[in-house]
Design a protein that fits this description.
By secondary structure, the chain is α/β, with parallel strands linked by helices. It is built from eleven helices and 13 strands.
């Protein structure tokens, strides 16, 4: 379902800056998600490619998504690379030794949930009924977990994390950037054994869209600060961490795991994999024409096709994480560590404390 936004959605003003396109979710990224999910690219994408090819002329090469070098990487994850394992250890042979993907979320006495892969789905607010159904079915088929938490934090700076859709008992808390040490301390005092690290930098006080990752950029320093806060309290092995914010691929997820997370949470990427390049805002004040358009697009949405695409995408991400872990000489994706990474930019090194190349 190609859920196009209204003209009001195409431009977003945040702190006086007008944004018309996310640097994280470029056309190239969306095309990559579609291919990993086994979906056919929309006609609009193919037409855009033909226009760009004609506009370049003289056989000129296409400009990358950032239009420049690594200094202008479209995502902080692009500033990190894995070290070749054969320089320090043997690469794991996939035909002789398996790579463990199973992920445990939480620790007793708190609620514990197990996922077959370290890729979760979350960061999405109220979705149209068919999209919600396809999301839950796809996650269940991939033997993963869907989680949810409020778009805005509570008075203490954090909010409860629950299973989606049936979770009535909180299974953890969500921590965002800013005064992370205090928030982690409060979470531990509350007995939390799962922390979702919401590293997305734009927290719109009046969200116009159910897709939280649509505008803004991820801030990897939030994950770094949460890990350091847990380490200072000697609670690093007592709390599970799930990272959310700009995860577009298995490589991004693997980097989040190497930085200290136990799982990576995808939101926008999951919707793209289901064929929803964009979602219109769900505004009670929207006129009847807008509401009718939303209902029409929802009716055209195929739940079985979308759920299968999401399942394929989740498996593709898990396989990519497994391949990278094996390449680093690991028999479990949870054995990835910061020492397996190197930073290509000063910004990435500062945000993650990973050595600069």
């Amino acid at each position: 379902m190609n859920l196009k936004s209204t003209p009001a959605d195409d431009e977003h003003v945040h702190k006086g800056v007008r944004r018309t396109e996310s640097r994280t979710w470029t056309k190239e990224v969306i095309e990559g998600v579609y291919r990993a999910a086994g979906r056919t690219l929309p006609a609009s994408f193919q037409e855009a490619e033909e226009e760009e090819a004609g506009g370049r002329g003289n056989g000129g090469a296409a400009v990358g998504p950032s239009g420049a070098g690594i200094e202008d990487a479209v995502s902080p994850f692009d500033g990190l690379v894995f070290l070749p394992a054969n320089l320090t250890r043997l690469v794991i042979d996939p035909y002789r030794e398996a790579c463990d993907l199973a992920t445990v979320l939480g620790h007793p006495p708190a609620p514990v949930t197990t996922a077959a892969i370290p890729i979760l789905v979350g960061g999405l607010d109220v979705l149209p009924g068919p999209v919600e159904q396809a999301l839950i079915e796809g996650v269940h088929s991939a033997r993963s977990v869907a989680v949810s938490w409020p778009a805005m934090p509570g008075p203490d700076g954090w909010s409860d994390v629950r299973l989606r859709p049936e979770g009535s008992v909180p299974m953890g808390v969500c921590v965002r950037g800013g005064d992370v040490d205090r928030k982690v301390s409060c979470a531990l005092e509350r007995g939390a054994r799962l922390i979702v690290v919401d590293a997305w930098t734009v927290q719109d006080p009046a969200p116009q869209t159910p897709v939280r990752e649509r505008f803004g950029e991820p801030d990897l320093s939030v994950l770094r600060d949460v890990v350091l806060a847990l380490r200072a309290r000697k609670a690093e092995g007592e709390v599970s961490l799930a990272y959310f914010g700009g995860v577009r691929s298995g490589a991004d997820a693997a980097k989040a795991l190497a930085l200290g997370a136990d799982a990576a949470v995808i939101g926008m990427a999951a919707l793209i994999a289901m064929g929803c390049e964009d979602l219109p805002r769900h505004d009670a004040q929207a006129d009847k024409k807008q509401q009718a358009g939303i209902r029409k697009r929802s009716k055209e949405f195929s739940v079985p096709s979308a759920s299968e695409s999401l399942e394929r995408f989740l498996h593709a991400l898990a396989l990519e994480v497994s391949v990278l872990a094996r390449s680093c000489g690991k028999t479990s994706v949870h054995n990835l560590e910061p020492e397996d990474l190197r930073a290509l930019t000063l910004e990435a090194a500062a945000a993650t404390h990973v050595p600069l190349v």
